[in-house]
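debug: dumping io for the single-chain case to check the tokenizer round-trip. Nothing else runs in this session.
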Amino acid sequence: MRYAITFSLLTLLILSCKAQTKNISLPANEFEKAINSPDVQVLDVRTAAEYNSGHLKKSLQADWYNQQQFKDRTQHLDKSKPLYVYCLTGIRSAAAVKQLKQNGFANVQDLKGGLTAWNLAKKPVEGAVKVKQITLGEYNTQINSNKPVLVDFGAEWCPPCKKMEPVIAQLKNEAADKYKVISVDGATQIDLQKQLKIDAFPVFIVYKNGKEV
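debug: decoded output
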């Protein structure tokens, strides 16, 4: 059984989803073709830490969570040129597109599924540090236990993941001989993320005797 945890960000996610329904997001292939056109602008609305972990070619960065920075940086963009926006999963970019349109950007679109979908489609990313990928066989070995296993798929710069950190830490401290807790950096383990069809963070999967329950 898989759980995507959002907690206090639930309201923000609902509002973002409403904004996204009014916006036609481009899938990875179409987005790639669009940003390779001449005289376009590409905007990454993730945090600086996320941007530095890997970003699209020639993309600018303005942190959606830091509204003052976002307003300061986007005011210097050219409203007469096409603007293509992306984030990690598409939630922030959808909200950003709505605000940008309200501020006079007529031709602005975002990446459907965000950088997560982009990575799953094996599209190019700049500035990313190569991380040894965990194979499915290695993963299966870790979850094959006579004790229940909880796997935590998250990311260092994922706000709801941060909210869950104290809970995960407590579970690990109390685990002893009761169960096993495994944390996976889903943002860098792209191969495993694709094979397990994980498209959001955080995701928690419980296994018993190596079987997902």
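debug: round-trip ok. Strands lie at 2-4, 41-44, 60-61, 83-86, 108-110, 149-154, 180-185, 203-208, 211-212.
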